[in-house]
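Hi P.,

Sorry for the delay on this. The queue was packed all week, but I finally got your sequence through. Input first:
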Amino acid sequence: MSYFSVVISTYTKDRLSYVLDCIDSLQNQSLQPKEVLLVLDSDVDLITFYKAHVPSDVKFIVSNGIGLSNARNAGIKNSNEDLIAFIDDDAIADEKWLENLAKNYGNPDIVGVGGLIKPLWESGQPKWFPEELNWLVGCSYKGLPEHKTYVRNPIGCNMSFRKKVLEEVGYFRSDVGRFGKKLLAGEEPEISMRIFEKIPNSRIIYDPSAVVYHRINKSRTNFKYLWKRSFFEGISKALITNSRKKTSLSLSNENRYLRYLLKTAIPSRLRSIYKFDSFRQLLVLLFSIMAVFVGFVFGKLGAAGK
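Then the structure:
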């Protein structure tokens, strides 16, 4: 049987209720985690606050830097189990989450496993928001495989890795990951590609039976956020490709996803363009594609100017 250290990170008192719900879902797993690590920024007031409110069996870790990658790295370095699972502070794990992740680690070539992330829309899903763009809010999106398969990388809200693999390849890079108001999102694909390059025959599995539910705040359902998140996604991809010698793997997922949008998602909206919601979703898809492209070009030009 495989056992997990589970890493959660948070940076604000405002998320206390979310963090408590997340921890509660971990304490009710069919396969109990050996330890739950809550990683906090190096803020005495924040640490004191959470220690006063969080169950005593949760292990507190102080991050050595700011940003999501530094928090995850602190969790890795302070974990005691062979497998490490990561979940966001505003997510809730299905009761069989860890059990279904663990089922995939029988083969030593499997170095990581991710699962399905279902959105919990706190104000309801906007009718203009297409499921193909659920990645904008950190969830699994229409266009992903529907069955268990090998993938390039998992999505950060629902992923796990072998600890020794993360140590061997050198942890998450903070310069391509989420940092303050910069909505970068390149740490998961970047470390996964580094794993494939450094560890021959390694594989990462996507198993949709391993489910977490991700809260989506109303602040993420407007065009300003959509533009900003899409723009920084483009920058993230530019940063990754700028640092890689083999570009075929770097954008393999993105190229496949773009083909899906062009061949399936957009044509389906065009066929029903007379419906107001289809028309709006078509515009939003095109808007996001444009924003990603602008961000990618911006990232490339920024690298060329250095």
